[in-house]
Amino acid sequence: MAILEIKNLHKRFGNNEVLKGIDLTLEKGNVLVIIGSSGGGKTTLLRCINFLEKPDKGTISVNGKTVFDSDDPSTTVYKNIRKNRLHFGLVFQQFNLFPHYSVLNNIMLAPKLALKAEMKEYKKQNGASAAKAEKARRLKAIEENAKNLLEQVGLSEKAAAYPFELSGGQQQRVAIARALALEPDILCFDEPTSALDPELVGEVLRVLKELAKSGKTMIVVTHEMRFAKEVADRVIFVNEGTIAEDGTPEQVFDNPQKERTKQFLQSIL
After folding, report:
1. DSSP 3-state helix, strand, coil percentages of the chain (rounded to 5)?
2. Cα distances (angstroms) measured from residue 246 to each of 23, 31, 36, 58, 234
3. What is the pTM of this model?
4. Quick one: which of 1, 44, 50 has its CA closest to 25?
5. C-alpha closest to that of 87 among 28, 143, 172, 148
6. pLDDT tens digits, residue range 232-255?
7. In the chain, which ranges are E strands?
């Protein structure tokens, strides 16, 4: 069974129809790379998948469960969207770290907020004393996990640092660790190297390659064609709101079927 299934996804901004009926599936452990020209719809697709934008029409399913259905109002209320967003971890172009938190606390923040909500219910069921002990235990586990994630992205020595003390590449690696902290089903990257100086791109791509090797399910919007060729299990070319080309890296890069795909690849390779 596919971990992600999208059917007939549409998104419009005013009179501009950006997504025009996207159908897409993604298998667990696979890396999907989305390429395309600016304005073609690839970032909007990613933002709809993780509910930063609300699709106008279509369905989204994760692990066989429908998490969005434009015909089912219960899936579109904020409480459910907020819950279902936890299936996805998102890494932005601009890092979006909290400047007043240390690196370690940036990674711990979302799990701690989730824990706070859980502890309210736990306290009702088990009493204040038990809740206090359980909270302390889980906070320790959250901190240990954050330290392990920092080690995974090669930044153990920066736990106490603040974002302004880091290079762009280091900030992006912290953002990746933060996305991993809630153990999402699918990691989403929106052009994760586009805001970096060329010499810093490699360190971020190395982390992404290691995540791919570890079996993480990933969706990556990128202009890094070499990365797409080396790491992707599947590549889709999004053009004018539709999937114009879909296949393995070898199929898309070496033997594209659509003339528009050929033109795009010739312009960037």
Report:
1. 50, 25, 30
2. 11, 13, 12, 20, 7
3. 0.92
4. 1
5. 28
6. 999 999 999 999 999 999 999 999
7. 4-13, 16-26, 31-35, 57-62, 65-69, 88-91, 186-190, 218-221, 234-239, 242-247
